[in-house]
Amino acid sequence: MQTAFTQLIGVSLPIVQAGMAGVTTPEMVVAAANSGALGTIGGGYLSPDALRQQIRHVKSRTNNPFAVNLFIPKANASDATDLKQMREILAPIRTRLGLDAMSDAAPEPPRFEDQLQVVLEEGVPVFSFTFGVPAPAVMDACKQQGILTLGTATTVEEALELERVGTSAIVVQGAEAGGHRGTFLPYVREPLIGSFALIPQVADAVSLPVIAAGGVMDGRGLAAALALGAAAVQMGTAFLASPESGAHPLYQERVKQAIETDTDVTKAYSGKLARGIRTKWMEQLATYHASIPPYPIQHYMTQEIRKRAAELGMTDYMSMWAGQGVRLATEHFVADIISDVMQQAQRVIHGLSSNWPTA
Ligand SMILES: Cc1cc2nc3c(=O)[nH]c(=O)nc-3n(C[C@H](O)[C@H](O)[C@H](O)COP(=O)(O)O)c2cc1C
């Protein structure tokens, strides 16, 4: 199935396995790439060394193109936020989980510049990004090295901005999508536009290949996305319960049981809106929504709690990102999910065209 996306990237299938920070494993990326899809390393939280290791692992097991996904840092992130209230909310939870009082030292997240350096040095074929627009120097460096770029948009306006800076193709993320919202323009209200409405509007506005993300779980979703003007789909939730997934076993269990009403969007874990399976922590913080420190501060403030909760198997405090299509997630191998999607999409497309009344 050739589309503007497969031709641009040099893959055989119009499917991207989403780079899911903290969940994607090199095994998942290799399985996706060797199936003919574009596999993506979710590198957002990885140290430069860990990222390099994952890239080399993938390179040693596939000759097909693959991508690395990173988070674009906010240029004017303020550290003047009042953290007192959040510290007070977190204190009893830390005690319950047997953690010491929170240290005053600010955590040191991996620097985007260092992660990007690894991407450039390793000659990764595709650089995928979310949460913003890279600086012109970053886009130039990728162009010079022949690295293709995939940027994430959640509105037509964001898609136009990505096109303007020279992105190769645009991931259009609908409100159904699991994980963090890629929204980067300063909207007063977070735009939560569904894929069905958003894909054709972006496809009309830009001349780049559009990759539909959000709620695509099987071949029906792929066929629908293509019909709406997309040239490929990016799937995340569909791979969460696969054997190659790095998600915690209890998280995978919840994914297998969850239904479409079980997810919600929240800032409780990271300070940036994201969709996941509803937890006690999300409900507890709902009343404080306006005073949650912005991303990435809240992410690092809750990091130890999430880690300890995972060790103790307490899903109440774990982040379990998943999209609204979660009921359709299976525990199949990545390669089988991809081949099922393709076969079903072909049946659906054929069925539609053969059922169409001829004048
Ligand atoms: C567990 C999880 C983690 C995610 N992490 C990232 C990430 O690190 N970078 C990114 O660009 N998108 C991330 N996403 C969003 C995906 O790229 C994509 O938009 C989404 O999975 C598509 O919707 P779906 O989950 O309904 O398939 C994540 C999604 C999930 C489910």
UniProtKB/TrEMBL annotation:
Return any one Pfam family short name: NMO
Q: Name one GO molecular function term.
A: nitronate monooxygenase activity
Answer whether the UniProt record assigns the keyword Cell membrane to this protein: no
Q: Which InterPro entries match?
A: Aldolase_TIM, NMO
Keyword tags: Detoxification, Flavoprotein, FMN, Monooxygenase, Nucleotide-binding, Oxidoreductase
Biological-process GO terms, alphabetical: response to toxic substance
Reactions this protein catalyses = 3 propionate 3-nitronate + 3 O2 + H2O = 3 3-oxopropanoate + 2 nitrate + nitrite + H2O2 + 3 H(+)
Enumerate the cofactors the protein uses.
Answer: FMN
Free-text function comment from the UniProt entry? Nitronate monooxygenase that uses molecular oxygen to catalyze the oxidative denitrification of alkyl nitronates. Acts on propionate 3-nitronate (P3N), the presumed physiological substrate. Probably functions in the detoxification of P3N, a metabolic poison produced by plants and fungi as a defense mechanism.
Q: In which family does this protein belong, per the annotation?
A: Belongs to the nitronate monooxygenase family. NMO class I subfamily.
This chain's protein is named: Probable nitronate monooxygenase
Q: Which organism is it from?
A: Alicyclobacillus hesperidum
